Amino acid sequence: MMAEWLSFSFSFLCWGLVLGGVAAIVIVLLLFRALTISHHAAVPKWRLKNSPAHLLVVLGSGGHTAEMFSMLRRMELDPSRYTYRTYLVSSGDNFSAAKAVEFETDYLGQRYQTTTKDARGSYTIVTVPRARRVHQSYLTAPFSTLQSFWACLLVLRGLHPDQKLRPPYFTSPYPDIVLTNGPATAVCVILAARLLRLYNYLVAIFEPRRKPTSSGSTRSDLQLRTIFVESWARVTTLSLSGKILLPFADRFLVQWPALGGKQMWKGMRKTEYVGTLVD
Amino acid sequence: MTSTTMKLCFVTVGATASFHLLLEAVLDESFLEALQKLDYTHLLVQYGKDSRALFEELRGKHRSGKHGIKIEGFDFNTAGLDSEMRMAQANPSDERAGGVIISHAGSGSILGALRLGVPLIVVPNPTLQDNHQEELAQQLQKQGYVVSSSVKEMAAALPRVEKLRANMLTWPPVSGVGKKKRPPLEQVMSDEMGFLD
């Protein structure tokens, strides 16, 4: 009797493990599939030309920050189009915060004096904890990375304490577009953006009444679009952040021809060679 | 060329890592001789936070002023190095001939020099682990924007600069034949936004 019960519970455990394993594999495959599909879903033309847009710029550190503002200047970032800008910096990175203020006041302020007052001073600088400080132990690094990831999630949802009241014409807390060029914090932000989008997608399936597409001017399924620009200093090899983000960023831009056309696995969107973006 | 005309060689090692090999190379007898031959009058060195002692020691060897080159140095400028780089730009009204910038292979310094249109020698730091900086220097040299040199060949790189000066390309590079209506980044962002246009 005892032996019979033991063997029964053993086989039950085995089946449990097998089923659990299968379920895990199915979920992973579904996630891969979802990533591939989302990489091929082109953004429809749906937004009116003069509708306000919220841009989130992730500032990495020294060289990355310098390159980012160099690109924003060269593309002549138009504050009447990207009416609200959030700059995300890592704690202790005073250089990046100073550069953001300089860009907003000196460049945008002088260049676009004629645009509406609303569009000019409309920006926020948000500080999140560093994923890993220089010389920090690898034992504690996973915890600080999680802490940083959590802060990035808060920023994307507009709940971070540094965030001022955003202009009233934004009904959604999400940035419309996330622009990054590395390193660590950029990885956190893009992963957090993808996680939020997955969550919203699942919510929309299970609660059709709250389907985001139904609300007129904002389509939260088309917000949080992510763009990663590989550093101009990378000629033949991708950076570590680039390698991690290759399957996750919606658009992956590279500035040297040898890096164009790379993809994580077959069927995924490829990196795009767009020439020199810095000035 | 009159003797009052200033011609500057500005050397920068950057803010992050120290680069003692570069300091030793530009304060070497052979390099100063090469400068003198090409009518340089001034050598300005940004040597980094922890290298003042080394710089003073190396400069001390040239107190005699045999080469007639004025050597000066500073550790770092938090406001950026733009004003120092501008001193190497040609400016006839100021009696300044076009000089040269010698820089570590950091992208910030390279871009700074390219924007000002001053000839640049890029010297990758061999003690740094990742060699992607070296690739950048090589690629830019191939395209005709800079002179790439190792720390050991600095004196030989100077005459190559004069050749580069004669055929300077403008920065930033103009995008291909079919001129697009928008800068590529603006285009990509617009596409992702889904703007009707």
From TrEMBL, chain A:
InterPro entries: Oligosacch_biosynth_Alg14. Keywords: Endoplasmic reticulum, Membrane, Transmembrane, Transmembrane helix. GO terms for biological process: dolichol-linked oligosaccharide biosynthetic process. Its main location: endoplasmic reticulum. Gene3D superfamilies: Glycogen Phosphorylase B (3.40.50.2000). It is found in: Endoplasmic reticulum membrane; Nucleus membrane. The chain crosses the membrane at residues 12-32, 138-157, 177-196. GO terms for molecular function: N-acetylglucosaminyldiphosphodolichol N-acetylglucosaminyltransferase activity. It is a single-pass membrane protein. It comes from the Eukaryota. One of its GO terms (cellular component) is nuclear membrane. PANTHER family: GLYCOSYL TRANSFERASE-RELATED, UDP-N-ACETYLGLUCOSAMINE TRANSFERASE SUBUNIT ALG14 HOMOLOG. Heterodimer with ALG13 to form a functional enzyme. Involved in protein N-glycosylation. Essential for the second step of the dolichol-linked oligosaccharide pathway. Anchors the catalytic subunit ALG13 to the ER. Belongs to the ALG14 family. This is UDP-N-acetylglucosamine transferase subunit ALG14.
Automatic annotation (TrEMBL), chain B:
Residues 1-18 form the signal peptide. One of its GO terms (cellular component) is UDP-N-acetylglucosamine transferase complex. One of its GO terms (biological process) is dolichol-linked oligosaccharide biosynthetic process. It comes from the Eukaryota. Keywords: Endoplasmic reticulum, Glycosyltransferase, Signal, Transferase. Gene3D superfamilies: Glycogen Phosphorylase B. Belongs to the glycosyltransferase 28 family. This is UDP-N-acetylglucosamine transferase subunit ALG13. InterPro entries: Glyco_trans_28_C, UDP-GlcNAc_transferase. It catalyses: an N-acetyl-alpha-D-glucosaminyl-diphospho-di-trans,poly-cis-dolichol + UDP-N-acetyl-alpha-D-glucosamine = an N,N'-diacetylchitobiosyl-diphospho-di-trans,poly-cis-dolichol + UDP + H(+). Involved in protein N-glycosylation. Essential for the second step of the dolichol-linked oligosaccharide pathway. Its EC number is 2.4.1.141. It comes from Aspergillus campestris (strain IBT 28561). Its main location: endoplasmic reticulum. It holds the Pfam family Glyco_tran_28_C. Heterodimer with ALG14 to form a functional enzyme. It is found in: Endoplasmic reticulum. GO terms for molecular function: N-acetylglucosaminyldiphosphodolichol N-acetylglucosaminyltransferase activity. Residues 9-148 form the Glycosyl transferase family 28 C-terminal domain.
